[in-house]
Amino acid sequence: MTEAELAGLGVHRIPVPIPFPQAGGPVNVYVIEERDGGILLFDSGLGSPEGHAALEAGFARIGRRFDEVTRIVLSHGHVDHYGAARFVQERHGGSIPVFAHPADVSKVAEAGWRWRDRAPLYAAHLARLGVPAETLAAVATEGERGFGLARRIAEVRPLEPGTILETRHLRLEVLHMPGHTPGLLCLHDRERRLFFSGDHLLEKVSPNPLIELGPDGRDGHFRPLLAYVESVGRMRALDLDLVLPGHGPPFSGHRAIIDALLGFYERRQARIREVLRDGPRTAYEISRALFPSARPGDAFLTISETVANLELLEARGDVVREEQGGLRRHRLAG
């Protein structure tokens, strides 16, 4: 299905530039025509000057106005997906309701948690995983820079899975697909076999399974890769003609992409087992073996990826963790 055919279904894609090359390209804002002539936005893009300009140009290109937006639905609580919601509200000139899954509301709401408040908890946890002080400083700087590209939203309403969003041409079912975040949402039109995936499935990039600490700083309350394997399996079972992702152009053949992605994770886990054959290692040491060229500022991403695969290996009984002297190490079981 071409973009022109999607426009015939009242769906328009606006790519918004972002400064995160590992994300897989510009983030997509989907403008979906409502029954009453208004607009539903699925994601809002990044809250940077370049992001705002891209949104304005995209609205002008499709002949729509910001005051026509009736609601904003967020796929998940990352800055490139919610960062411009306040800008859209201000350009609208009135009140636009914003919706997100309950598990991600605290990431985007004004009353939610802030990076500067949570950063010490993450620093302490990463130190337990073996991250050296200079790398911790780089991670803190990168986090502050990223969260500065979004403004929090005064009120975010919870959107429950199973809700049906009726638009001009589509009947979109809200699906909870945790993994990339605990509260990632996708939209599915069963009749037209369309699937708005957010960052749940991308054509050329694997979604980062990111470390999620509990309110008290403890880990383990959410294991992203285990959740992702389950939810992407549910997506694989769907009959789909087209996936409209959070980054990159729409694509088909979702089952082949999912199978390749799961194979990629299997190979990564095999590499981790290979590293551990030489003896116990911290997650940081394993991540350096997996990503030898990564910048210090990317350490949160690379360690998150490493830890998520270790959690899956632990769940399978292949790997055991050990805590000693304030450090966590992993070894092969048996």
UniProtKB/TrEMBL annotation:
It comes from the Bacteria. SUPFAM superfamilies: Metallo-hydrolase/oxidoreductase. It holds the Pfam family Lactamase_B. Keywords: Hydrolase. Gene3D superfamilies: Ribonuclease Z/Hydroxyacylglutathione hydrolase-like, Winged helix-like DNA-binding domain superfamily/Winged helix DNA-binding domain. InterPro entries: Metallo-B-lactamas (IPR001279), NDM-1-like (IPR050855), RibonucZ/Hydroxyglut_hydro (IPR036866), WH-like_DNA-bd_sf (IPR036388). Residues 26-247 form the Metallo-beta-lactamase domain. The keyword Hydrolase applies. GO terms for molecular function: hydrolase activity. PANTHER family: METALLO-BETA-LACTAMASE DOMAIN-CONTAINING, METALLO-BETA-LACTAMASE SUPERFAMILY PROTEIN. This is MBL fold hydrolase.
